[in-house]
Amino acid sequence: DFVLGRGRIWNRNRAERRKLMDGVGAQAMQFEEAGELCELALRIHQEKSSAGSVEEAADRRLMALVCSGKEDHEAALEHLVLSSTVLLANGLESDVAAVDATIGDALFALGRDTEAALSYQKAVTVFKATKGDGHASVASVYVRLAELYMKTGKPREAKTFCESALRIFGAHGAGHSVEDVVFGLADVAGVYEMMNEKEQAIALLSRAVDLQGSAPGQQFTAAGIEAQLGIVQFMVGKFAPAHSSLKNAVLKLKTAGDGKRTVFLGMLLNQLGLACVELCEIDEAAATLIEARAVMEEACGPLHPDTLAVCSNLASAFDALGRTHEAINLLEMILEVKEDRLGTIHPEVEDERERLTVLLNEVGRSRKRKSNTLEELLSMAKFESARH
Asked: pTM value?
């Protein structure tokens, strides 16, 4: 049997999708180097008595971006609050609103949902006052609120914010940039996907892809949007369109990335391989998954969980092609790593072991079983006693 869909293929969080589409993942950005430069700039502000200047506020916003990229949301929040204070003291209300929205993102990431909602609402109020009710900045915060309300179990409120955002993004003659509308549609699509309204998500993403086509030169963004579209198409069983979308995304990503092997590229190749499987194009699936494995090994290491997920899919492709020994070698490697990390009685380990056992039986081989540790034996005994 073919086993599909192992591993993370797409994080539905708006901030994570935006990070991928902006720069194709954190790995494409030199966060350590950027952080050092920001710290140097902030020290210079202190030494030259320019603390509290607009320039310092800008550097703190950049430092917050670096911290966020490194998943240090507490540090990002601290820099954003200081930046907001400086901007407010200088009367830059519109800039304060933009920072407040980003503060909401940091609070959202930290699970401080009530505070995040207040920060978003504060940003909306100022944006409306300074830019007008129909500005793209207002719509952008509406999408943030929609995602927040989905997270807190309020889909009706989330849908209302999505509809409000779409009215703004769809307004003719409003002067929105193509980039704002493309990102906005993709973000709203992500919320509809969370609502399980995937056809609506596909319609919005298709519109975003069409719009992006009229703004050449942004291949990273185009690849991210088309990848998101392909994955949603795959989820609803539209495998031929998904294959087309994912293949286009891979080609654009390779063109824009100058040959860089990133996690995002590996993720897309993995998903493209699965689409090939669904279309019974097993040779193409195997070739694509082999490439995905090579990319993931270089981007995040041969034993990373996402790399192992690709290897698991590749083993299934080898099995379907009759390349049984290659499939066995992969599954033995995967199983050894997972047994070391998860223990021999973990359900995920049992699943891989069953797959390997079937293949070993086909070629008349057996596997030397790994002995259980004392901790695992005690866990097993506890599990058995709970059953009885």
From this structure: 0.79
Which CATH fold topology does 132-215 show? 1.25.40
Separation between Cα atoms, residue 199 and residue 201, nearest integer Å:
5
* Residue among 225, 329, 266 nearest 8 (CA): 266
At 295, which amino acid appears?
V
Domain boundaries, the chain: 132-215
Q: In this structure, what token pair is assigned to residue 100?
A: 């407040």
Which alpha helices (H) appear in the chain, and where do they start and end?
Answer: 14-23, 31-47, 54-69, 73-89, 93-109, 113-131, 136-151, 155-169, 178-194, 198-213, 219-235, 239-256, 263-278, 282-300, 305-320, 324-342, 347-362, 374-387
Distance of CA 346 to the CA centre of its chain: 27
CA neighbor of 287 nearest in space, from 338, 237, 236, 250: 250
The distance in angstroms from the start CA to the end CA of the chain is 33
Q: How far is CA 263 from CA 191, 268, 277, 384, in A?
A: 24, 9, 21, 40
pLDDT digits (tens, 9 = 90+) for 273-319: 999 999 999 999 999 999 999 999 998 889 998 899 999 999 999 99
